Amino acid sequence: MKKAPIIALDGYSACGKSTLAKELAQALGLIYVDSGAMYRGVTLYFLQNHIDPKPSPEATSALASIHLAFRKSLDGAANELWMNGIRIEDEIRGPTVSSMVSPVAAIPEVRRKLIEEQRLMGAQGGLVMDGRDIGTHVFPDADVKIFMTADPLIRAKRRTEELRMKGEHWRLEAVLQNLAERDHIDTTRKDQPLRQADDAVVLDNSNLTRKEQLEWALRLVEQRLRVGD
Ligand code: DC
Questions:
Q1: Is the Cβ atom of 79 under 6 angstroms away from ligand 1?
Q2: What is the 221 CA–ligand 1 centroid distance (Å)?
Q3: Whose CA is nearest to atom 8 of ligand 1?
Q4: How far is the CA of 54 from the centre of ligand 1 (A)?
């Protein structure tokens, strides 16, 4: 029997990858995995334990004490991240973690550990995973690869609004700068930098609604899976 498909969704920060990945997974009956959440989990642990966000023997040995797991939310609607038996879904979305996650994600040992775990999750197929290196490195044989991008100002406005809804008031310029810094670190780091896989299809959603981008992605998936039959 053919393995269930793997859909890789990569792209810049705050492009709406997780929104699309979640909706795609739901529409196709696949599992959604937010690989960025795992880097955020490690970052939270580093913050809690005063570990510098750079390669060091201390950072490497801390990794053995970090056990990450996705569990269904109480209403069953979402996959939430837990670390060492504690739900950390809210903490990892805050600005403190956001401002430190890119340097932590650039530490080779951190990447090695998380990529190994991500590949285990995908061993049986059947998932949509979003991140930065999913189509290029984690699952180079993914059945469908999407590379998402959007105008930086539109991304910053969307993120500012998202933070506002959570009761956090950030200046647009500060969000714009945080996104630019993260893009820079993500695209220039030595190991598995963010780049478009040769066989990825670009989705610029600057001027698309949620519904339009989902329809676009569903058409692409249908096309690709038909060709792959
Ligand atoms: O998607 P996100 O913003 O939650 O990701 C948080 C950070 O983790 C982002 O700055 C880059 C890093 N990341 C990564 O390096 N590789 C991935 N597959 C996913 C995220």
A1: no
A2: 23
A3: 36
A4: 16
Q: What is the pLDDT along the chain (229 residues), one digit of tens a residue?
A: 578 999 999 999 899 999 999 999 999 999 999 999 999 999 999 999 999 999 999 999 999 999 999 999 888 778 899 999 999 999 998 889 988 999 999 999 999 999 999 999 999 999 999 999 999 999 999 999 999 999 999 999 999 998 898 888 999 999 999 899 989 999 999 999 999 999 999 999 999 999 999 999 999 999 999 876 6
Contact 149, 15 (CB under 8 A): yes
Here the contacts of 52-58 (C-beta below 8 Å, separation 24 or greater) are 53/100, 53/103, 53/104, 53/107, 54/103, 54/107, 55/107, 55/108, 55/109
What sign for the dihedral angle of Cα 208, 95, 193, 153? positive
Question: Quick check: helix, strand or coil at residue 57?
Answer: helix
Laid out side by side, the sheet with 6-11 consists of 31-34, 127-131, 6-11, 144-149, 201-204
**Domain boundaries of the chain, sorted by first residue:** 4-228
Closest atom of ligand 1 to CA, residue 37: 4
Superfamily per CATH, domain 4-228: P-loop containing nucleotide triphosphate hydrolases (3.40.50.300)
Q: How far apart are CA 138 and CA 38, in angstroms?
A: 14
Ligand 1 neighbourhood includes 182 CB (under 6 angstroms): yes
Is the Cβ–Cβ distance between 139 and 122 less than 8 Å?
yes
pTM score > 0.90 for this model?
yes
